[in-house]
Backbone:
């Protein structure tokens, strides 16, 4: 029998034993590729995280916890972040910040945001989510030493041939197979009162977002930004703002910001340091001016003095 491959490049191979089921009465081995997590944008938990590739499509936090508990023991696993969880939420924020300069792209970002709201508000049609084949995840452990111990335990499992069993000790997770599709059929047609409540909640959230967008557009109308440009917004024909009106509006905005800044005072420590530096610089400047004035007066008196 050929020897199992323990690693490929920088990845260690974690073999997982898939138990037989009624639909497929044969045991199988699934390979998960593991390496220390090293993303392009570092985070505080990178040193105690493992990057997993090719996780099973039915992976849940309970499944990953069970695997690492069998490798390291209880209490060493903290959480897992799946691929869709890393991509969905930050995408909307990034789209809004980077692409908000163009109207069409800003509308697209709002549409994505509203779509996510709709997905959360309306009833679910599936009792659990499945991952695409070859998906990735990040497993966060208790500390950096647990990462080293996990990699050593993976090597030991490859040598001994005793692989962790997928789903061992996992309870409360909806089953797959025919029961999954029976549950889907039932969830697809929820009770009328439950569906009506979900639709009402969604419409209330939609109206709230529309009102918030309208207030923001009204506040930005005919108010020039710091570069002197005026934001063009929808809703009413107010006519173009005159330069005088734009200057007055900008002046009021600056006065409002200045009043707000003064009311806050030295809220941050660096603001106090900057203020003291400015006062010290002003004192030094006055001292130099006084010293030059005194030197000039001395020179003038020496020129006028004539001994008898």
Residues:
């Amino acid at each position: 029998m050929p020897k199992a491959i323990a690693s490929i490049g920088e990845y260690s191979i974690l073999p997982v034993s898939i138990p037989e089921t009624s639909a497929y009465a044969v045991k199988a081995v699934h390979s998960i590729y593991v390496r220390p997590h090293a993303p392009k944008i570092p985070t505080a938990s990178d040193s105690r995280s493992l990057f997993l590739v090719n996780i099973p499509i039915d992976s849940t936090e309970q499944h990953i916890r069970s695997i690492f508990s069998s490798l390291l023991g209880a209490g060493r696993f903290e959480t897992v972040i799946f691929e869709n969880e890393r991509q969905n939420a930050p995408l909307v924020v990034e789209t809004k910040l980077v692409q908000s300069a163009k109207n069409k792209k800003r509308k697209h970002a709002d549409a994505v945001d509203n779509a996510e709201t709709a997905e959360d508000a309306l009833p679910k049609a599936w009792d659990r989510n499945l991952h695409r084949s070859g998906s990735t995840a990040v497993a966060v452990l208790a500390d950096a030493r647990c990462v080293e111990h996990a990699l050593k335990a993976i090597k030991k499992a490859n040598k001994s041939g005793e692989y962790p069993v997928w789903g061992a000790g996992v309870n409360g997770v909806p089953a797959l197979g025919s029961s999954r599709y029976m549950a889907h059929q039932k969830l697809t047609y929820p009770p009328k009162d439950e569906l009506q409540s979900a639709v009402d909640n969604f419409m209330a959230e939609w109206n709230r977002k529309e009102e918030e967008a309208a207030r923001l557009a009204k506040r930005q109308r005919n108010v020039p930004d710091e570069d002197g440009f005026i934001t063009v917004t929808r809703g009413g024909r107010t006519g173009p703002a005159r330069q005088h009106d734009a200057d007055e509006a900008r002046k009021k905005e600056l006065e409002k910001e200045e009043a707000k800044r003064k009311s806050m005072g030295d809220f941050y420590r660096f603001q106090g340091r900057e203020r003291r530096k400015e006062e010290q610089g002003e004192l030094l400047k006055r001292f130099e001016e006084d010293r030059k004035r005194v030197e000039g007066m001395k020179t003038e008196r020496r020129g006028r003095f004539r001994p008898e």
Q: What stands out?
A: The CA atoms of residues 125 and 185 lie 8 Å apart. The beta strands are 7-8, 11-18, 28-36, 49-53, 77-82, 136-141. The first strand starts at residue 7 and ends at 8.
